[in-house]
Each structure stands twice: as structure tokens, then as C-alpha cells.
Amino acid sequence: MEIYILTLFPDMIQTVMRESIVGRAQDAGHIKVHAVNIRDYSTDKHKKVDDYPYGGGAGMVMFPQPIYDAVMAVRAQVGREAPVIYLTPQGKTFSQEMAHDFAGEDALILLCGHYEGIDERVIEEVVDAQVSIGDYVLTGGELAAMVVADAVARLVPGVLHNQESAGTESFEDGLLEYPQYTRPRVWRNREVPEILLSGDHAKVDAWRHEQSVERTKQMRPDLIKKAGA
Ligand code: 6GU
């Protein structure tokens, strides 16, 4: 799978996406993350990408031309259908379900805005979906794009090893994860729950499920309604 991130800060993307599991997945050829500098596509003699908003107001707005040309160039390079997703607090809230939908694509084009946003007409012209990562405001779409890229990458076959398997985590069954323990068995007078040492797998599974339900009730009662647990 190929993920193109269109941004004014390509170094920010490269630095993060070459680390850890996503970095390893790129080295192994399971995914490729391309950081595309929108400024490179500006036809302005000073490589300007933004201007004052019509109607007045604070901040600057990214004008359509560099964004449109960058998207067209990437589309030509991809050579197949790839959705253009604009990261914005005005978008639909990102979810594990959306991550699964995006993971089914061969390629994704993630567009990061900056300043006060981008000209509405370029959204109308090229954007297929608008996505937010939650109800708070970031300085730009880069961190949001990387959140989406990370959540999608780990669902691409081969990216996670068996040990890190994708099925049992929080949200896959609509419940939060159960607590985990490792050695030592006693640490600062706190003991690992006895049942985990019993070797009785059925009992361990039942205990873990109960813990997941309890934890979800405490921390995320809104999820319990959806999971029907
Ligand atoms: Cl996608 N962008 C920005 N700038 N802020 C956000 C966001 C996106 N999602 C939540 N806050």
C-alpha cells in the first residue's frame, strides 16, 4: 500500500514514519509513505502557498493552485483510483472502522492543511472525504495524517508480526483491553493476579473478558452500548 502525505512540512512526516513498526514495514516493502511538499508545486515566483482571506479575518488561507497541482501530480504517479482525504477538525471523526476501510485501498492521498485552512473550492474540486482525529485543534494536519497512516499501516497484511496481532486490541471487539502483567510476580508489594499464574486458559480468558467489560464500563460507558456486552 502507498500512502502519499501532501504537506508543507515533509521532514516532519519522514522523521516520524521511518521509526518503529511503520519504519520497519516500509523497509520490508509492505507499505510506502511518500511525503510530498505542496510548496514544490507553487507556480508563484516566491513559492508562496497562502494569502489573506476574502472577507477579512485572522490568519492566512492556502490558495488552490499548489494543492490542486500536487494532487494531480500524485494521482498521475499512482495511476489508479486513490481517495483524497483532507485532514481537518471539520471532518468526520476517525475510527477503527474507517481505518479498516482505508486499509482496503491500494493507495491513499492524505492532504494536510495549515494556517486557517485551505480555499473551499479546492476541497470541492478534489477531496473525497474529510477526517478529524478528535475534538481539539492542532496547528496543522500533519499529526492527524500520521495518526491515520499509523492506524491504517498496522492493518496491512504482514505489517504486524504474530506477537503484535491486530485482532485482539481495544476497539476491535468494541471493548478496551484487559490489564497486562509481566515479571516480577511481586513488585513493590503488588502481586500479579493469581488466576494468570494458574495455567487454566479458559479461566484466564474469562477473567480477561470480565476485566475488559469492567474497564470499559468505568472508562468508556459510551462503548458498552455499542458493543452490547
Ligand atoms: Cl485533522 N487537523 C487539525 N488542524 N486539527 C485537528 C484535526 C485535524 N483533528 C483534530 N484536530
Oligomeric description of these chains: single chain
Task: Estimate percent helicity.
Answer: 25-40%
Q: What can be said about the biggest beta sheet?
A: 5 strands, parallel
Could you tell me the CATH topology label of the largest domain.
Alpha/beta knot
Beginning-to-end CA distance, first to last residue: 35 Å
CATH class of the largest domain: Alpha Beta
The topology string of helices and strands comes to EHHEEEHEHEHEHEEHH
Query: Unreliable stretches, pLDDT < 50, 5 or more residues?
Result: none
Which ligands does the model contain, each kind named once? 6-chloroguanine
| Computed structural class | alpha/beta
Second CATH tier, the architecture of the largest domain: 3-Layer(aba) Sandwich
Separate helix tally: 8
Q: Compute the gyration radius: what is it?
A: 22 Å
Give the name of the CATH superfamily of the largest domain: SPOUT methyltransferase, trefoil knot domain
Overall morphology: elongated
How many domains make up the 3D coordinates? 2
Beta strands, count: 9
Strand adjacency order, main sheet:
2-1-6-5-7
